Amino acid sequence: MLRITAGKFATAMRGTVGTTASRVAAVRCVHGSEESAEEFDKRYEKYFAREGIDGWEVRKGMNDLLGMDLVPSPKVIESGLRACRRVNDIALAIRWLEGCKDKCGDQKATLYPYLLEKITPTLKELGVPTVEELGYDKPELALKSVFDI
Q1: 55: part of which helix (H) or strand (E)?
Q2: Which H or E run includes 84?
Q3: 108, 115 Cβ separation under 8 angstroms
Q4: InterPro entries recorded for this chain (predicted)?
Q5: Is the distance from CB of 79 to CB of 101 less than 8 angstroms?
Q6: What's the pLDDT at 117?
């Protein structure tokens, strides 16, 4: 008797779970409208400019941005630097600059100087040195390549 009841219960649950799962999948497949580049920039500027933002949230926003297939705009970079200053984390600011430089990819020769030109006033205002000023762009203890000998 118990086995028959358990079998019917399992069959009923399979049907219920199956419809619920398909509904959830259908809801997740629905996409909203695409946002423009300006709206995207404003969203992240607003995120970094929040009053009660802490170090973890700053890192999360920066990690999300660096995980995307884009180079952050100078306004977003400046907003991230100001957030680093508010949480008093200069190491995070320098790593943010380093991550933005790395996101330039094969366009580093053209894109990174443009970004530096745009954010230099903010860097001076906040007292944040660039990666090049600190010497982080060159390895400190690198050995000569065997092909250069």
Answers
A1: helix 55-67
A2: helix 74-86
A3: no
A4: Cyt_c_oxidase_su5A/6 (IPR003204), Cyt_c_oxidase_su5A/6_sf (IPR036545)
A5: no
A6: 96
CA angle 51, 43, 113 (to 5 degrees): 100
Instruction: Go through the domains of the chain in sequence order and give each one's CATH number.
Output: 37-134 (1.25.40.40)
Both ends of the chain: CA-CA distance in Å? 85
69-102 pLDDT per residue, tens: 999 999 999 999 999 999 999 999 999 999 999 9
Cβ contact 43:32 at 8 Å: no
Between the CA of residue 50 and those of 47, 59, 72, 75, 92, what are the distances in Å?
6, 14, 18, 15, 17
Write down the pTM of the prediction: 0.72
Rounded Cα–Cα distance for residues 123 and 116 (Å) = 9
